[in-house]
Amino acid sequence: MAKDALTAQNLVQTAHVVGLRFSELFAGMDLTPTQFAVLIELERLDDGEEGLTQAELARRVLVRPQSVGVLLTSLVEQGLVTRTGPGGRGRRVGIALTEAGRAALERAWPPVRAFNTPAALGLTPAQAGMLDELLEHVRRALRADD
Amino acid sequence: MAKDALTAQNLVQTAHVVGLRFSELFAGMDLTPTQFAVLIELERLDDGEEGLTQAELARRVLVRPQSVGVLLTSLVEQGLVTRTGPGGRGRRVGIALTEAGRAALERAWPPVRAFNTPAALGLTPAQAGMLDELLEHVRRALRADD
DNA sequence: TCCTCTGAATCAGACAACTGATAACGTACG
DNA sequence: CGTACGTTATCAGTTGTCTGATTCAGAGGA
Fold it and tell me: For B138, which of A63, A113, A122 is closest by C-beta distance?
């Protein structure tokens, strides 16, 4: 069977390489790709929203809540986010960006945007749009399986 | 900036979820997704080829040679591959599939093929073909960066 | 009002990759 | 023929996820 018939495997292998590049990009900013993903979910909050819970962040960045817990601890230590509420099992905590967090994101955006341009990925804008669409299909299909 | 403009990030996040499903699939067969990738590279050898080196396998499955070394040790222990040559630093070793390895692959193929069908990924065959093509563009672009 | 069940957060350990360093082979060139 | 350099495989430690289990809150229903 031709290798290119293994679309899921292709996806995972290709993304693995992309992920390594991402990690390199963030290494200079003391962040991991998932921490960055968490920060941009928090940046995206509308006015009036009081933060997101750890569980909600986990859903949005597609990792386990336990993993988000660990990385949030690190972000709190770096002063990039705040955790409100007493914490503990069963207790929802509110997570919000700090001013330092906003500043860190502002510094991160230029190289992140550069890396995400279609050209950086060897694609045309139309192809990048298509890739995003196809990935959305895949995410939906896997969500339906749950 | 809209999240869907972060194509690279989309790719990594989506593939992460796909990768978890892959791991679940292989867990029942005492394999990891990367071990499976190694086995299919070995299966694909033409007649007359004497095996692949660890370095060559690493290039083909897109992980570090040190990581391939560890996983090969595991595959040898499971009797799925053989290592020929004395081994050691600087010494190329030949890696080849055993009969047990071929049998393990035969058992693995049906669920793997099922998981890689376009339908399983929420795609049409044309879309799956397109995704494979786009992923190849991305891999090429990143290879050129090296 | 009480009980049950679902969801949330924490705890603990495992794992499959990674990075960095090192030792030796093998090839090419002077 | 000897040297230098690139490649190969090994060694050692780290990391960012995972899984499984546990504890507790809170909502909903009886």
Answer: A122
Domains of chain A as residue ranges with CATH: 3-113 (1.10.10.10)
Give the pLDDT confidence of B88-145 residue by residue, as tens digits. Answer: 999 999 999 999 999 999 999 999 999 999 999 999 999 999 999 999 999 999 988 7
As a rounded value in angstroms, the CA-to-C1' distance for A54 and C2 is 30
Gap between the Cα atoms of B146 and B143, Å rounded: 5
Among the partner residues A37, A131, A138, nearest to B122 by beta-carbon distance:
A138
The CB-based long-range contact list for B39-46 (8 Å cut-off, 24+ gap) reads B39/B75, B39/B80, B39/B81, B39/B97, B39/B101, B39/B104, B39/B105, B39/B108, B40/A3, B40/B105, B42/B81, B42/B95, B42/B96, B42/B97, B42/B101, B43/B97, B43/B102, B43/B105, B44/A3, B45/B96, B45/B97
Chain A partners of B1 at a C-beta cutoff of 8 Å?
109, 113
Which chain A residue's Cα is nearest to B126? A134
Tell me the pLDDT band of B1, cut-offs 50, 70 and 90: very low
Q: Residue type at A16?
A: H
| Collapsed DSSP state (helix, strand, coil) of residue B1 | coil
DSSP label at residue A16 = H
ipTM of the complex model: 0.93
Residue with tokens 């192809």: A127
A1 pLDDT tier (thresholds 50, 70, 90) = very low
